Amino acid sequence: MNELNRLDDTQLEDTQSGQTPPGAVTPLRGGLPARKQRCLAEFIEEHLAEEISLATLAKLVNLSLCHFARAFKQSFGAPPHRYHMVRRMVRARSLLQRSALSVTQIGIQVGFRETSSFTRAYRRFVGVTPSEFRRQRPD
């Protein structure tokens, strides 16, 4: 099963309400407080097209790398890199559905330098290539 289907659609949709960040779950012991989850989710959304290091994210919430990685996974249900990639794929899906941009342009907007890299990643997460996804959508 692919990443986008594994995660609940309500977790993957963009939230503009400022409530719970996409993919976040109720903090448990060892997880991140809601305020820090929101801060991280907003930062990742604002920097989707960039590579974000674990150190940058950990520094943002003032935690050690090890503690941060564990708390992030517990709070968001996925490691930081995977969460970032899923958010990229959600944005790409949205752009593929709503815009007239080419697959190459969408790939660049979500942080891929090469169309082939974007296509490979999209297929891995969604199960079809971006072009196939566009052909399958209802007009």
What's the average pLDDT? 84
| Count of folded domains | 2
Which structural class do you get from the secondary structure elements?
mainly alpha
Q: What is the rounded distance between the termini?
A: 26 Å
Helix segment tally: 9
Largest sheet: none
Helix content: 55-70%
Strand content: under 5%
CA-atom Rg in angstroms: 15 Å
Task: Please write the string of helix (H) and strand (E) elements.
Answer: HHHHHHHHH
Shape: elongated
User: Count of DSSP E strands?
Assistant: 0
- Low-pLDDT segments: 1-19
How are the elements arranged and paired?
Elements: H1 3-6, H2 9-12, H3 34-46, H4 54-60, H5 65-76, H6 80-98, H7 103-109, H8 115-126, H9 130-136
Helix pairs in contact: 7-8
Summary, kept brief:
The chain has 139 residues and is mainly α.
Please characterize this protein's 3D structure.
This protein has 139 residues and is an all-alpha fold. The protein has two domains: 3-81, no CATH class; 85-136, Orthogonal Bundle (Arc Repressor Mutant, subunit A). It has helices at residues 3-6, 9-12, 34-46, 54-60, 65-76, 80-98, 103-109, 115-126, 130-136. Residues 1-19 have low confidence and may be disordered.
